[in-house]
Design brief:
Strand content: 5-15%
Number of domains: 3
Distance between the termini: 42 Å
Order of helices and strands: HHHHHEEEEEEEEHHHHHHH
Number of helices: 12
Structural class: alpha+beta
Helix content: 25-40%
Largest sheet: 4 strands, mixed
Number of strands: 8
Length: 351
């Protein structure tokens, strides 16, 4: 889908509804309702080696031009960047993906049947992956994670799993000495190796910003894990790459989000175009999956000028007040300790 294509929300949506016209509804779930259409329109082609990361970012911007599309773009970018990022790193799945040196980006779609990658193709029923990292009191430090696998049983709590309320499988980041293995946890009790329902305690919730995105707090109590459930030996430094991808994708969501208001304000239009050109220049040289070291060269990503233009447009005191205009703007002014750590790391490299 090119930038000149019809917006997916306009193409498949229903006036007055957050769901597509042919499938879905609250009983199906927001992201689950839309994912078949995202697959159809190529939103997962980057993961399958069929297009560049820049093309994926352009699709996110186009999607985010519609109010409902901001929530959908967030759900999509988290599954692609985070769950997909773990799969890209996994040695077991790499063997299924790098087969033919003549294939685009040295990736191929062969030998994908029965693999995790089928979830990003025309798989029925639709399957959704989410990732559990955040824990109560962890302060964004992997060494403080308390999730443990002991005697083949996993216990711990993940406090904020984006897409978790709709996910079929959650990639659970644990702690084992100096490493952080990642295990696959299936939410459907009937399809998992869990025998007792109280081994899994769930609490679904939504936020004021992107309110259609489902989040989950999930506690496991001696949840049985098989050897085949190990997805990644060590999450480790991958966390930095995945967070930088999320922050870069927020640039694309901001580009889409501000299209309508840019038509009313010349300064916003100019700053938005500057941001679009920056993204093109930054991502065009990339082949394949962007890694942390490259992503860090462009960080912090230059959204401040556009956010300030928006702040001025609505006569607000600071960008943090943009959420009073639309709660979705909180996405773009959110600061957590890990983001601050990345700023400090970049400053140290520059000094």
């Amino acid at each position: 889908m090119s930038l000149g294509s019809e917006n997916l929300i306009l193409k498949y949506g229903v006036s007055g509804s957050s769901y597509p016209k042919d499938t879905g509804g609250p009983e199906t779930g927001f992201y689950r309702s839309w994912k078949p259409y995202l697959i159809q329109e190529g939103f997962y082609h980057f993961l399958l080696g069929l297009e560049s990361y820049l093309e994926f970012q352009k699709k996110l911007s186009l999607l985010a031009e519609e109010p409902v599309g901001v929530s959908l773009a967030l759900s999509c970018m988290v599954e692609v960047n985070v769950a997909g990022g773990i799969l890209l790193q996994s040695e077991t799945t790499k063997q299924n993906r790098f087969q033919n040196e003549n294939a685009k980006d040295k990736q191929t779609l062969t030998n994908l049947e029965g693999s995790h990658w089928a979830a990003f193709q025309n798989e029925t029923p639709t399957r959704i992956y989410a990732v559990g990292v955040s824990e109560p009191g962890w302060e964004t430090k992997l060494r403080k994670l308390k999730s443990r696998l002991e005697n083949g049983k996993l216990s711990g709590t993940k406090s904020f799993i984006t897409n978790g309320g709709e996910a079929d499988v959650i990639f659970w980041v644990t702690k084992r000495e100096a490493e952080n293995p990642v295990y696959s946890v299936r939410r459907n009790i009937a399809e998992s190796n869990v025998a007792v329902e109280n081994q899994m305690i769930e609490e679904s919730f939504h936020t004021d910003f992107t309110p259609l995105v489902s989040h989950l707090k999930l506690t496991l109590c001696e949840y049985p894990i098989l050897d085949s459930d190990l997805i990644l030996e060590n999450y480790g430094k991958l966390g930095m790459e995945l967070r930088l991808k999320e922050l870069l994708s927020l640039v694309s969501l901001l580009i889409g989000k501000t299209k309508s208001v840019s038509k009313e304000n010349k300064r916003i239009a100019e700053e938005r175009e500057i941001l679009i050109r920056w993204r093109e220049t930054f991502l065009s040289p990339l082949n394949g999956n962007p890694e942390a070291e490259y992503l860090l060269t462009g960080f912090p990503y230059p959204t401040d000028a556009l956010l300030l233009a928006l702040t001025s447009h609505w006569n607000l005191a600071s960008p943090k007040e943009l959420k009073s205009i639309d709660p979705d703007y909180q996405l773009f002014v959110w600061e957590d300790s890990f983001t601050n750590y990345l700023v400090q790391k970049k400053n140290r490299k520059s000094s």
